[in-house]
Amino acid sequence: MNKPKKIPLRKCVVTNERFEKKQLLRVVRSPEGTVFADATGKANGRGAYLKKDPSVILLAKKTKVLERHLEAAVPDEVYDDLLKKAAQ
């Protein structure tokens, strides 16, 4: 008997809802301190997840929740990149 494959769940740092990894966008602070949107979901560093929803991304920008989670400044380009990915 095969066990059903476990689906990894992650929590959105804005809404505190749990989703499958596929439904979220990952933002990473690398060991060097750069912050970027992680398309692969496997980049090395401290990660935070956001729901693929433009309103959630804008709320994250307004409340600086990512900056608190990643303990680093998040450049505007990262939010622009996330908004583009959420619109796809």
Features of the shown structure:
88 residues, alpha+beta, 5 strands, two-stranded antiparallel sheet, Hypothetical Cytosolic Protein, Chain: A, 32% helix, 3 helices, globular
Task: Walk me through what this model shows.
By secondary structure, the protein is of the alpha+beta class. It has a single domain (9-87), classed as Hypothetical Cytosolic Protein, Chain: A (2-Layer Sandwich). It is built from 3 helices and 5 strands, in the order E-E-E-E-E-H-H-H. It has helices at residues 54-63, 65-70, 76-87, and strands spanning 9-11, 18-20, 24-29, 35-38, 46-51. The strands form 2 sheets. The chain has a 3-stranded antiparallel β-sheet. Strand 1 (9-11) and strand 2 form a beta hairpin. The model has no long low-confidence stretch (mean pLDDT 92).
Short description:
This protein is an alpha+beta fold and 88 residues long. It is built from three helices and five strands, in the order βββββααα.
Write the layout of secondary structure elements.
Elements: E1 9-11, E2 18-20, E3 24-29, E4 35-38, E5 46-51, H1 54-63, H2 65-70, H3 76-87
Antiparallel strand pairs: 1-2, 3-4, 3-5
Helix pairs in contact: 1-3
